[in-house]
Amino acid sequence: MRLEDYWGIGPKTSERLGDSLGTERAVEAIESADVRALVDAGLHRGRATRILRRANGEAGMDVLATRDARSVYDDLLSLAASHALTGHAADRIRVLTPSTDRAAIESRLDEVVAARAAWDDLVEADRDRIVDAFDAYDDADGSDLAAVETALALREVGVTGPPFEEIGSLDGEALRDMAGALADVRGAIEPGPDGDAAFDVARGADEELDRRRDRLAAARELSTAAFDVLDAVRDGSLRDFEALEAATIEHVASETGVDPATVRAAAPDDALDAADFVSGTLRDLVAELEASVAEREETVAADIRERIGGVRAVEDYDDSDGDADGGVARAVAAVSDAAFLLSLARFAAECDLIRPELVDDGIAVRNARNLFIGADVQPVSYAIGSHSLASDSGIASAETPPTGDRVSVLTGANSGGKTTLLETLCAVSLLASMGLPVPAEEAEIGTFDRIVFHRRHASFNAGVLESTLKSVVPPLVEDGRTLMLVDEFEAITEPGRAADLLNGLVTLTVDRGALGVYVTHLADDLSPLPDAARIDGIFAEGLTSDLDLRVDYQPRFGTVGKSTPEFIVSRLVANASDRGVRAGFEHLAGAVGEEAVQRTLSDAEWSDGDD
């Protein structure tokens, strides 16, 4: 396959990847979603991530039907990647894409839920040990030795069951032998031309090899300064050329540690003069010592290769003899996969995520939380479409969400969490589509071909209206299952016409068999909605003693929410320090209901703020 056949790779990028990696290796990096390889080849990390998302999840990326849906997707992956144990695991998380393949989603959920169970079962000290092991692995840039040592650490703390069977299948004693052998290796192990592991032998692996290398280094140093050697051995007392030859051999032997006989054997027999003799002796001695070092390196490398017990390429591993140690390749692959799953397990544990039930249609959550606004947040229960959340599920301060309604129109107080609820539903749907747990106590999530999330954009002009309609309508009328999450049309056109457009969108959503939640302040202006649609409301309940708006964020089903402007005016009256400004706000209090404003101020004065 040509590099330019991949999304986002043009001629210049193709040439860069080809020059840096070679076409075959570049294709392999793209197909295996190897962000690091593309970044090392010179691509910006963000661009490399986008290329790999498209290459490995083209259909899934089409689920993200709007810019705001893509924004939530990016934020979710950034949050998940922040819990990654290694840089490579973070890269793998960032290239996850939504999927419409139910089997693939279920399989990922199985793995992540099992990984979280394994993580939860560990005591804190063992978790710290795992984190430290992966930190060392990252610091060593994922070296083979670091991978083997990490595999040992995982085995020793008991990370060997599902979904970490590959770690469990590695033989501990073989891993320890590999670690000892790999400590004698300098640099990464790579497959050689014959398929055997190719590497440099590290200093300290063999005393004899170290001695030969030291002698070679000394001889090379002398050979670069042959005239200095000649000056050192030339002496007025030397009677003839034979005496100079002897002095040269003695000096070289002394400086390099090489046996004089070896130096003598390297000396030329046909030197033209003293300078030619010295330079020729040193040149031939370096060549002989290079051959000696190479011979010893091969002997030591063969021993290390046998101790390592495998080749670098995973596909070359053959376990037909039942030997479970599998060499370095299996350890490297198993540790990489473990880092990825344990990173997702940490994300699920620290954000308290649960496995959703995948259903054919609908979206329903009990006590769902928005992951982007901190831990101290009121959970919310909500649903559209069919679901089976029981009335005794413990839904806080709300009845069970109705079942069967295809569309809801969400109304209520300013700063009442309507947009946050849309974002929460979008995030829950996207997490489930990627095979990841969701922030709720219970969830039933359908599979969607498109998710249309559109935040309110406070620009009142025809261009914004047109672009908004072009953003939300085409995905709605396409074949397949669509989830519509649209915020405040009245922000982009006059209220009367916005109500007409909203009526049309609700009706179109029902007609197309889609699901939708539409946020608006225009519930009273809407025409009768289709039978499959309902109106829900969020209510402000007053002000706290700190004059913060007190809102029950749990929607009330089948009820129009109120904006309750008297609460906002009450806060403005109470906070006004200028007498004239205060008088202005008091005038507005009369317009919205002075009695209500005074009651709100009285309630706030006596409120303890705890509710």
From TrEMBL:
InterPro entries for the chain: DNA_mismatch_repair_MutS_C, MutS, P-loop_NTPase
Coiled coil regions in record: none
Keyword match ATP-binding: yes
MF term (GO), any: DNA binding
Keyword field: ATP-binding, DNA-binding, Nucleotide-binding
Keyword ATP-binding: yes
A Pfam entry, by short name: MutS_V
Start and end residues of each DNA mismatch repair proteins mutS family domain: 405-589
Top-level taxon of the source organism: Archaea
Protein name per UniProt: DNA mismatch repair protein
Originating species: Halorubrum trueperi
